[in-house]
Write a structure and sequence with these properties.
Helix content: 25-40%
Number of helices: 8
Strand content: 15-25%
Largest sheet: 5 strands, parallel
Number of domains: 2
Strand order of the largest sheet: 2-1-3-4-5
Oligomer: single chain
Order of helices and strands: EHEHEHEHEHEEEEHEHHEEE
CATH architecture of the largest domain: 3-Layer(aba) Sandwich
Radius of gyration: 18 Å
CATH superfamily of the largest domain: Response regulator
């Protein structure tokens, strides 16, 4: 356990007391603080005063579909989101990622895997919290790595999810280079059928590209990975250079 993890607050949205108890226990063993919400409504009410670092949301909630709950959380908070689901359909997990979840865990789950997923999301969020002076500029766009704000050439601001921000951070740090899917997913082990990275690329394209079907920045290199085709200039820090 790292000291900085002891301050992290994890909200657990799970209607099954036994499952919630297991999650609270295992996260507590690793130094995380937890807050158990029995329903989506309970979580949304608590979000008015609570600022969790991450929410674990069960898709099978009694009062609201978990995907809808996740969307409402995403609209209110910039916290990480981990989907917990017993649904066998891949489409549910893909839809969750499409709507802004950072990751998912299937029921029945191995407690250590759940902790590993939580820690991975927390680490990714922390790595995105870089000094405000680090701003990447490309093609008229500005990406502030300190607050995940993406500013379009016309001045409109777009808020990125943690996963989208982390992905764009990798791209702007390695422009004009083919990056394999494993590199873009960080430490997560990829199965051949895992579509998480493709979903996130698709979400970024819809925000960045005038025509997502014919992308100018995020190029697919079939059989190799993805290419961020742009000249990136770093502003706001001494000695910033152009790549």
């Amino acid at each position: 356990m790292k000291d900085n993890e002891s301050a992290k607050l994890i909200a657990i949205v799970e209607d099954d007391p036994d499952v919630a108890k297991i999650i609270e226990q295992v996260l507590g063993d690793f130094g995380f603080r937890t807050c158990w919400c029995r329903s989506a409504g309970d979580l949304l009410r608590r979000l008015r005063t609570l600022a969790p670092d991450l929410c674990i949301i069960d898709l099978g909630l009694p009062d609201m579909d978990g995907l809808e709950a996740m969307q409402r959380v995403r609209a209110q908070s910039g916290c990480g989101i981990l989907i917990l689901t017993g649904r066998a359909h891949v489409s549910d997990r893909v839809m969750g990622l499409e709507l802004g979840a950072d990751d998912y865990v299937l029921k029945p789950f191995e407690p250590r895997e759940l902790v590993a997923r939580v820690r991975s999301i927390v680490r990714r969020r922390e790595s995105s919290e870089t000094p405000a002076r680090q701003i990447a500029e490309f093609g008229g766009w500005r990406f502030n790595l300190s607050n995940n704000r993406l500013t379009a050439p016309n001045g409109d601001e777009l808020a990125l999810s943690t996963a989208e921000s982390e992905l764009l951070k990798v791209f702007v740090s390695h422009p004009n280079r083919i990056l394999q899917r494993e590199k873009l997913m960080g430490s997560r082990d990829l199965a051949p059928s895992d579509r998480a990275i493709d979903v996130r690329i698709s979400r970024l394209r819809r925000k960045l590209e005038p025509d997502p079907q014919s992308p100018a920045f995020l190029k697919t290199v079939y059989g190799a990975g993805y290419l961020f085709l742009a000249t990136v200039a770093w502003s706001g820090e001494p000695g910033a250079s152009q790549h």
